[in-house]
Design goal:
Elements (H helix, E strand, L loop, with lengths): L13 H16 L27 E9 L3 H8 L5 H14 L4 E11 L4 H18 L2 E9 L9 E12 L14 E6 L8 H11 L15 H5 L7 H10 L4 E4 L4 H5 L8 E5 L8 H10 L3 H7 L4 E7 L4 H10 L4 E9 L7 E3 L3
Parallel strand pairs: 2-3, 7-10
Antiparallel strand pairs: 1-4, 2-4, 5-8, 5-9, 6-8, 7-9
């Protein structure tokens, strides 16, 4: 038996973990909402529903990660926004069902715990929760030497929201003639980054600090723009207006995500050119020689959220979205689908 063997010599620093908790306490507490019953450090997070005034409440849950966008953060040495991406990927899935986010939990697995880096990552998670008005109720930071390569880490997130049963928005009320509204993304968001890295870093030999014609910032700054969180916009939109369906445009793009809310015998007819596609998508397609079909199925093409509303509500809904500071466009219409017809078609193609 070696009396000098210590956990720290195996690569795990418990003192660093405790220091991170101390650094993060004020950031996490800023996300707390009236339902939070426990402080950071508890074995589990307690959240009371008594502060939520619902007659027939339904809880909505979701989980997700950030994918290989993490690799870009590592290459750029920038970790303060990747946590916003994590929150967005989870809570945007919750809000499109008409739900209000209640709380969020994170899991950070890392090769070696560096206090400053971990504080940046989790600080970004706290900022995402603040934007969504959801409590960062708990989390886990696991130091795993030998499992991850030097400097690497991974993130996972878990969220819970609440909605009145009769207020659930699942697309079941979508009808032929409804209009489709696309809400702007902040860029690539958090999908397709394996292809993004292949094109820009492997094939083109570019670096995060490279300047690319057509971009007003470095490539790394463009690729690390955090995913937009739509919770606040959806909160006031569903309260005051009729929304028949909402789709979070993530992996699969418009082609695979819109069908998830379409009733039988309905198809979405999208008008290409009805919204401005941000330059990063055209640059990526050009440099990678990627087909338009592949682009549409891999990336959001500048639309992070899609709404389906009755035709009579379309213009007023657009006005309200614009009044809230978001960009949005009327991009299509719900049409009758014939047997075997594709659920998303692009008009004129």
């Amino acid at each position: 038996m070696d009396p000098n063997n210590r956990y720290s010599q195996a690569g795990v620093d418990l003192d660093a973990a405790n220091r991170i908790v101390d650094v993060l306490k004020p950031l996490v507490r800023k996300t707390y909402t009236p339902g939070v019953m426990t402080d950071i450090g508890s074995f589990g997070g307690l959240f009371s529903l008594s502060s939520q005034r619902y007659e027939n409440p339904v809880l909505v849950s979701a989980t997700d990660g950030v994918g290989t966008k993490l690799k870009v953060a590592l290459l750029a040495g920038k970790h303060d926004t990747i946590g916003i991406d994590l929150v967005a990927m989870v809570l945007n899935d919750i809000v499109v069902l008409g739900a209000k986010p209640l709380f969020f939990l994170d899991y950070l697995a890392i090769e070696k715990l560096e206090v400053d880096q971990a504080a940046e990552i989790i600080g970004g998670i706290a900022e995402g929760c603040r934007q969504a008005q959801a409590a960062l109720l708990g989390g886990e930071t696991a130091e795993m030497p030998g499992l991850y390569r030097k400097g690497e880490y991974d993130l996972a997130g878990f969220g819970v929201g609440i909605v009145e049963k009769d207020g659930i928005i699942d697309g079941s009320t979508i009808r032929v003639g409804d209009r489709i509204i696309g809400v702007a993304s902040s860029g690539l968001h958090s999908n397709g980054y394996s292809l993004v890295r292949k094109v820009f870093f492997e094939e083109q030999g570019l670096k995060p600090d490279s300047r690319v014609d057509g971009l007003d910032c470095t490539l790394g700054e463009e690729l690390l723009k955090p995913t937009k969180i739509y919770a606040e916009m959806v909160r006031w939109l569903v309260r005051d207006r009729t929304v028949s369906g909402m789709a979070h445009i993530t992996g699969g793009g418009l082609v695979d995500n819109i069908p998830r809310i379409l009733p039988h015998r309905c198809r979405a007819e999208i008008a290409p050119g009805s919204w401005p596609v941000p330059p990063i998508f055209n640059i990526l397609q050009d440099k990678g020689g990627i087909t338009t079909e592949e682009m549409r199925r891999t990336f959001n093409m500048g639309l992070g959220l899609v709404l389906v509303v009755p035709a009579k509500e379309a213009e007023e809904t657009l006005d309200r979205i614009h009044g809230g500071g978001e960009e949005a466009w009327l991009i299509g219409e719900i049409k009758q689908a014939e047997e075997g017809q594709e659920e998303v078609v692009f008009a004129g193609e």
